């Protein structure tokens, strides 16, 4: 199961011109380079709660990463990956939804698996004290497939987070995830990862 610890980051207004590329046809190394470029843009100051939007809907686009995590791993496949992510944040209702697409991995014969992971409606709260954001979000299980390999990407989230930058212009999410193999040489085992999501308001 995936646990997302949310931290929200930001960029300046000029950064809205280009958030991240669609990595559907990227190699793993190309996706890694794109991810590092995006991550470097989000080293900014914390957004205080009284500086956050109180209304409106914002779309955040960016990338999601995962690196092999030995503790929860039962598979011989030590997977690292990158993917595109898009999040829709409704500041009126303090909810958000998301989708994760275009996975690119370092695993042979699973370099560009097909599949889309849909994230159920999440809720964030401002009543936790200080500038922390209370957060919970279910992530619906989805299959990722390439050739004879099929993995179930499983996820859920319940933690605290923060907004960063001018008016919550970008997002940083800490992520742990599992690939539960149901077909292929690793069937019946689990590949575990930890990583992050970085996304910028469009």
Automatic annotation (TrEMBL):
Spell out the InterPro entries in the cross-references. OMP/PagP_B-barrel
- Cited SUPFAM superfamilies: OMPA-like (SSF56925)
User: Any idea what this protein is called?
Assistant: Uncharacterized protein
- Gene3D superfamilies in UniProt: 2.40.160.90
Origin superkingdom: Bacteria
Q: Which organism is it from?
A: Reichenbachiella faecimaris
């Amino acid at each position: 199961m995936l646990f997302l610890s949310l931290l929200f980051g930001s960029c300046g207004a000029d950064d809205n011109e280009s958030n991240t590329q669609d990595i559907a046809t990227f190699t793993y190394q190309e996706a890694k380079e794109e991810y590092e470029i995006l991550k470097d843009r989000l080293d900014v100051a914390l957004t205080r709660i009284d500086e956050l939007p109180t209304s409106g809907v914002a779309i955040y686009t960016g990338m999601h990463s995962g690196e092999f995590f030995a503790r929860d791993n039962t598979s011989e496949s030590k997977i690292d990956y990158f993917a595109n992510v898009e999040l829709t944040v409704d500041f009126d209702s303090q909810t958000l939804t998301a989708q994760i697409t275009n996975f690119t991995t370092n695993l042979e014969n699973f370099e560009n698996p097909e599949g889309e992971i849909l994230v159920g409606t999440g809720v964030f709260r401002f009543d936790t004290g200080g500038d922390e954001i209370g957060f919970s979000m279910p992530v619906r299980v989805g299959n990722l497939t390439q050739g004879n390999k099929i993995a179930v990407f499983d996820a859920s989230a319940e933690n605290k987070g923060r907004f960063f930058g001018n008016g919550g212009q970008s997002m940083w999410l800490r992520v742990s995830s599992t690939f539960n193999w149901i077909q292929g040489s690793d069937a019946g085992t689990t590949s575990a990862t930890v990583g992050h999501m970085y996304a910028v308001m469009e």
